[in-house]
Amino acid sequence: MDRITIRKPDDWHLHVRDGAMLKAALPFTAKLFARAIIMPNLLPPVCTVKDAEQYRNRIMKALPAGARFEPLMTCYMTHDTSPDEVEAGFRAGVFTGVKIYPANVTTNSAAGVSDYRRIRRVVERMEKIGMRLLIHGEVIDPEVDVFDREVVFIERELEPLTRDFPGLKIILEHVSSKQGVDFVRSRAGQVGGTITPYHLMLTRTDWLGWGNRPYMYCAPVIKTAKDRAALRAAATSGESNFFLGTDSAPHPVKKKLDVVGAAGLFNAPVAIESYAQVFAEENALDRLEAFASLNGPRHYGLAPNAETITLERSAWTAPGEMKVDGPEERALIHRGGETIPWRVVT
Length: 346
Ligand code: DOR
Ligand code: ZN
What we know:
Elements: E1 3-7, E2 11-14, H1 19-32, E3 35-38, H2 49-62, E4 70-76, H3 83-91, E5 95-100, H4 120-129, E6 132-135, H5 149-164, E7 170-172, H6 178-186, E8 191-195, H7 197-201, H8 204-208, H9 225-235, E9 242-244, H10 253-256, H11 271-281, H12 288-300, E10 308-317, E11 321-323, E12 330-332, E13 339-344
Parallel strand pairs: 2-3, 3-4, 4-5, 5-6, 6-7, 7-8, 8-9
Antiparallel strand pairs: 1-10, 10-13, 11-12
The chain binds (4S)-2,6-dioxohexahydropyrimidine-4-carboxylic acid and zinc ion (ZN).
Zinc ion (ZN) binds next to loops.
């Protein structure tokens, strides 16, 4: 199969940032995706209905002329998040979900959650009103190995949460391990999992085995070939609880290359093409549409898109970087300079 037409995809996990970076990065997503779940980890974070409305307006203003794109906003969970604020935002159609960042787990997460008892009233309310909970599933504990953060989070926090709130729909974001895949599968119907293009393609040997490649550093970190195989099998299985979420996360080059480098891969310019490549390699192109365009809307209780896009097997070279106005200058593009075997033709 050298050509495939699928319903227009959505990105169920995206960082578009703000200001000049928003202006530069958003067009890559708005061109090929109809909707995206917008991550709230700005500084300061998007915590209130008003914050989200204002951020949504800035996103709409940053869209290229004529673009049709719907940002789906999320609320950043803190120990002070109010159930009433969350419910009001949900009922007003401003908040699609609430996002949990464990405190200090990644970029701009200092205001996140460290004591899960303190958010129970919010979670209870979300279960009651049918609102989705999005989770960055990693523990932050110096005793826990960085490669085990996801599996220990599942044991300590996520498994109990699914038991205590059986009616709550959860998304385990950027699943990165075989155990994560197994857990999502074991909670089919309740828990969905997004999978990034880079966790489907890279191993930690790519990242660290031939010199340290700081632009492959992300949270959760890239894991082993065994984990990658489990992720590829899950994404291409057609199972409805696995769906597309790029976690595209641009950073200025100097932050990626700093002594303490920032986590995140800017992959929006190559995302759908990279997923298509993975599905072709796995002989599963007939299941790309389920993963990219159907399973996500179903988990969120939304209708799939009516428009389509067509991809063709036809090589092109990914640009190395994206220019950004002002002092942030530029962001490196994931797979920049690589030959990408698939391209979007319409
Ligand atoms: O690698 C990551 N980058 N993981 C996250 O969870 C956040 C993101 C970012 O905002 O840069
Ligand atoms: Zn993210």
